[in-house]
Amino acid sequence: MQSQDVSQRHAPTAGTGPVDAEQAEAAFVEHYPRLVRLAYLLLPPGLGRGRRVLTAHALAQRALPRGRTKPSLIPAQGAGREDDPEYAYLRERVVRAALTAARPRKGLPRLAPLPQVWGLKLFPRSGGADALALDQRLATLSAPARAAYVLRGLEQLPDAGVRELLKAAGVSDPGGALASANGVPAHPGLLSSPEFDPCTLQVRPTDLVRRRQHAKAALAAAAALAVCGALVVLPGGGWGPDGAAAPAYAGNPAAEAALDPGRLTRVSPTVWRTADRTDFSVWPARGPLTGDRDLLRRALAVWARPGRSVRVSATPGTATGGPAGPPQLLYAGEVDAARVVLLYDGLRVARYAEPKDGTQGAALDFARVDGATGPGASALVLGRSDGNVRYLTAPWVTKAARRDLTKPDAAAIPLGLADGVTEPLTSPVVQPGDCASWTVLQLTDASGTHLGTDLGELVPARLTAGRPGAAGDASGARGLRTWAPFACSLAAERAAGVRSVNAWAYAEQPLPDGSGSGTWVCTRAETWRGDGTAALAQFRAPGGAAGAVVAKGTDVPACGPRDPRVLAGVLWKSAGGHWYLLAAGGKDTASIEATGGVTASGPGPLLVARAEQGARAELTGVSADGREISGLR
Q1: DSSP labels for 474-507?
Q2: Radius of gyration, alpha carbons of the chain
Q3: Closest alpha carbon to 369 in 395, 342, 387, 396
Q4: 184/196 Cα distance (integer angstroms)
Q5: Most Cβ neighbours (<10 Å): which of 64, 360, 513, 587?
């Protein structure tokens, strides 16, 4: 029955249903840039780029229902944003208004007054030849056909959904509009490009010379379009109840609710014991300042609209916009020289910090944590000071310790825990000079012992060891020995949005001239956003204290759960003074071939060949099942 419900949600729905006005306002704020882009693309290019921008904003703003008591109606909608009926309702109103505006007539009645800008021309960034050609092709289409093309390319609606939406918008022949749209090649990437973004604008003067000649005093021009997503900006705010926040947005109950400290979600300290999952949603609110409404108000206000004095940072791929509703409070208290608030909105953790001495300025940091559970949701950074870092640990953590990852045989040193807050420990990412050690956080809970490392972000990256797909915590003796020579390579992953890093010792290679055996390890960093994964092939020669990165790949499946195969090579000088090409793959590598500066081949996962100093070679391999393996470079 459940699977049937899911499948029905993705099918076009017939009929209409009520939409709450306040929810429509929240959807309007969230999706305003997309609604304006949609209107801009549907309007005829003959309007001119400046007039088209202002008209697009006017159409999007008029899509918002005016009433607050009577529910509006949702038109029939297709797949695309099925779980957001308010967005579907607003989209249908924008499409209807844009098609009405595109009909041949003298002027555009009922659209005045448009947003006003005096003394300035506003228009999107200039595009390349492809964007210009697409705009010219769209200009040759009728308004319904242009709408069909945009809805299919930008909104990713299926043809059935496009027909339903066009019909609801008053198009008499949706099928004909789709047929006409088929004559223009699909370019979904171009439709999402800055060339068609009426919210990211260039500014130029209009009649500047004439105004200087005829005016006795210079006129100050102000753009009416300030920030996409804002409805109305009123004077006020600044330093006061909202702290370092910018002036407040008005007239949006959903946004106001998100700023109310009284509506913050606070989880009971015992919920995690019976919850089905162990993630940030079951963390209780901790810290001595959880009852400080003024502090919480400032944190929420700055999150919603950071002012000029606020330093904002975010892990790659993390949105920095305000919360859609009241977030969950995780912590509020004093950490070193700052008052700190940690908040969670289901997808992100936000850290607000302000100086305890009352000086102006604040910091706002964001990190993605979607899908975090268990060890991945065991700790958050509270603050950094004097080269140290403090963590707030999950309520299920029973012990905390620190250990030097470069010394696998040394015992972990216990860390004190007070209401989940650790004693300070050295942060490896802020250590000056060469990497001589790498301090990591060790946490123990009912499921075992886990390692995490500070990489300069709010969430420590989890450390694992073992073959991809079967890797486990790196806290065991074998995992610690695997990581020890390669710990300092973690510095390459700082501030990259890394979720976890795995180390896999995939080969041991006997070396020529009786030099012993070399160790091959592949370390792979997975990110919270999915892309940006980094695989490093590293080689450690006998007697070497640390390994060396010899090859790498970004956004490749190699050395990961989807494709654990790996192949890399290095030029190495033996104790006898001879140069060799060394290459190694995983155990499932059937043969390796080198071409270019070194020509050699051999069966099995290892290859050794004489080489000249500075030689460059291309490596390819074949796996046991006959598939080709490309070497990391």
Answers
A1: TTSHHHHHHHGGGGGGGGGGTTS-EEEEEEEEEE
A2: 30
A3: 342
A4: 17
A5: 64
Supply angle C-alpha 77, 83, 88, rounded to 5: 40
Helix axes 174-181, 143-153, angle to 10 degrees: 70
Written as one letter, the residue type at 131 is A
What percentage of the chain exceeds 90 in pLDDT? 51
CB 209 within 8 A of CB 130: no
Cβ pair 568, 551 in contact under 8 A: yes
Task: Check if the beta carbon of residue 243 is closer than 8 Å to that of residue 298.
Answer: yes
Tokens of 510: 């006997």
Largest pairwise CA distance in the chain? 91
Gap between the Cα atoms of 536 and 559, Å rounded = 9
d(Cα 5, Cα 51) in Å, to the nearest integer?
45
Cβ within 8 Å of residue 629, ≥6 positions away: 565, 566, 567, 585, 589, 620, 621, 622, 623
**Whole-number Cα distances in Å, 437 to 426, 432, 479:** 10, 11, 17
**Alpha-carbon torsion angle 124, 125, 130, 133, nearest 10:** 40
> Other C-beta atoms within 10 Å of 507: how many?
25
Which residue, among 575, 584, 581, has the nearest Cα to 616 in the 3D structure? 581
Please state, rounded to an integer, the average pLDDT across all residues of the chain.
Answer: 82
Sign of CA dihedral 226, 230, 236, 238: negative
| Coil, helix or strand at residue 349 | strand
pLDDT tens for 246-274 read: 555 545 566 677 788 999 999 999 999 99
Segment 74-109, tens digit of pLDDT: 333 333 344 477 888 889 999 998 888 877 554 443
C-alpha of 66 from chain center: 34
Task: Name the amino acid, one letter, at 617.
Answer: A
Q: Tokens 């000079």 correspond to what residue?
A: 433
> Which conformational region is residue 48 in: left (phi greater than 0), alpha (psi within -120 to 50 degrees), or beta?
left
Site of tokens 């242009």: 146
**Which residues are paired to 317 by β-bridges?**
none
Strand stretches in 237-376, DSSP E: 310-314, 328-335, 338-344, 348-355, 362-368
Count of CA atoms in the C-beta half-sphere (13 A) of 606? 13
Dist. CA 378–CA 394, nearest whole Å:
5
- By three-state DSSP, how is residue 326 classified? coil
With CA atoms as reference, report the closest residue to 348 among 313, 394, 310. Answer: 313
Task: In whole angstroms, give the CA distance from residue 378 to residue 422.
Answer: 12
